Amino acid sequence: MKDIKAIRGRYYIHGLIQEGEHEHQDFKFAITDAPKIAHSISAFANNDGGHLLIGVRDNGSVAGVRSDEDIYMIEQAALMYCRPAQKVEITAFAVEAGAIVVRARIPKAEKRPVYARDTDGSWRAYFRVKDENIVAHPVMLAAWERMARGGDTLFALSQAETALLTYLDEWGMTTVDRYMTGAHISRATATDIVARLYAMGIIDFSYTGSEFVIVRK
Fold first, then answer.
1. What is the CATH number of the domain that holds 169?
2. Schlafen AlbA-2 domain: from which residue to which, for each copy (predicted)?
C-alpha cells in the first residue's frame, strides 16, 4: 500500500464489521473483477449510498488489503464500468498486526439511474437490497429518468391514477403487472403513471425478496 497512507482505525473498522453486511455495507476480501465491483457501485449509488470494506472476508475476519491493485480496480470500476462515472472516496485504515482495510465510500447518485457494464458489454442498473445487489426493475428506471429530467408538478389525478392510490391505501402494495391488469391499461401507460407519481414523491418502491412492488409513501 505504497500509494495511500493508512490512518488508525482499529476500533472504527471492527465496529463496522460487527454490523455485518447490509443495505449500506459490503465486505470484499479482494478486488479481482472490475465489472462485478461496478455492480456494487451502481447498487449503492442508486440507493442511499454505502461503502465497501476491502480486506475483510465474508465471515467478518480481517485479511487486509494485499496490493495497491485493489484500489486501482475500484477506481477503474467507478470511472470505466459505471455510466455515468461515479466518485468513490477511498480511505485506508491500519487495523491490526500490520493489516490495512480500505473503505470505499460510494455516495448516493445525484441523478439516477447509474448503470454498470457487464462482462458481455451490456449495461444494467442495480439497486441495493439488504446485502444483495438486485437488477433494478424497468419501472424504477423510468421513474429515476423522469426525476432526472426534473420530475413533475402537481396535476389533477386521472381515474387510473386515483385507482392506484386507492388500492395502495387499502392493500399496501402492488406490482406494475397487477396494476395494469386491474386498471385495464397498457404497460406503457402504467409505467408512465407510476413514474410520474414516484417523481412527485407520492409512491415508492420496495423489494419483497422476490419482486419489486409499488408502495405508498
1. 1.10.10.10
2. 21-133
d(CA 44, CA 162): 32
* pLDDT score of 215: 97
CB 53 within 8 A of CB 25: yes
Distances (CA, A) of 70 to 5, 85, 136, 158, 167: 15, 18, 27, 52, 48
pLDDT at 149 over 90: no
Whether the Cβ atoms of residue 160 and residue 183 lie closer than 8 Å to each other? yes
Count of CB atoms situated within 10 Å of the CB of 171: 10
Q: Does residue 1 belong to any structural domain of this protein?
A: no
Question: How is the beta sheet containing 123-129 ordered, strand by strand?
Answer: 82-83, 115-117, 123-129, 132-135
* CATH of residue 60: 3.30.950.30
Same structural domain for residues 121 and 146?
no
**Parent domain of 164:** 138-216
Residues 89-139 have pLDDT tens digits of: 999 999 988 899 999 999 999 999 999 999 899 999 999 999 999 999 999
